[in-house]
Design a protein that fits this description.
The chain has one domain. Helix 1 runs antiparallel to helix 2 and helix 1 packs across helix 3. 60% of the residues lie in helices and 0% in strands.
Length: 86
């Protein structure tokens, strides 16, 4: 949705700020755990919002950065299997 309105930044800028505020509140409220599937979608949306708002995303960044930093510390468990093994 945000990508669709990128050409009309001035028209939708306030709406995007409201969405960003709501999503940041969800991320920082502690109501969602890191393994909650919603958190991935929220972070992806926040990245698109950051691209849309550019410098204007700065007020939200301080609240989002700790969650992103936590993501970098997570262990990734990947198992490679052959298609023949299944």
């Amino acid at each position: 949705m945000i990508e669709a309105v990128a050409e009309e930044k001035l028209t939708f800028q306030e709406n995007v700020h409201q969405i960003a505020g709501s999503l940041v509140q969800l991320v920082t409220s502690g109501g969602l755990t890191q393994d909650d599937p919603q958190i991935v979608a929220i972070k992806e949306t926040l990245s698109k919002i950051a691209y849309f708002l550019k410098e204007e995303f700065h007020p939200y960044f301080a609240n989002v950065f700790p969650a992103l930093l936590t993501d970098t510390k997570q262990e990734i468990d990947i198992k490679l299997t052959s298609a023949e093994d299944n």
